Amino acid sequence: MEKFKVAISSILPFFFICMSVYADEGMWMLGNLNKQTRKAMKELGLQMSADELYHPQKPSLKDAIVNFGGFCSGVVVSEEG
Description:
Blueprint: H1 2-18, H2 35-43, H3 50-53, E1 66-68, E2 72-74
Antiparallel strand pairs: 1-2
């Protein structure tokens, strides 16, 4: 049993050190986009500029999001998706 504990205690740190975790999924807050995030979005296929996506004072994609009674949201999607 002691050998098992020693083996586990020496293997687990190695496993956690070698394991890579990337947080590239989920919700990106539009007001907090930085250059690295914008670059990643372009690499994933985004075809609009950062100002077209989000600008606090000018019209942008953020203005296309609607809110229904505080419980749901929706967007308008063109025929091309």
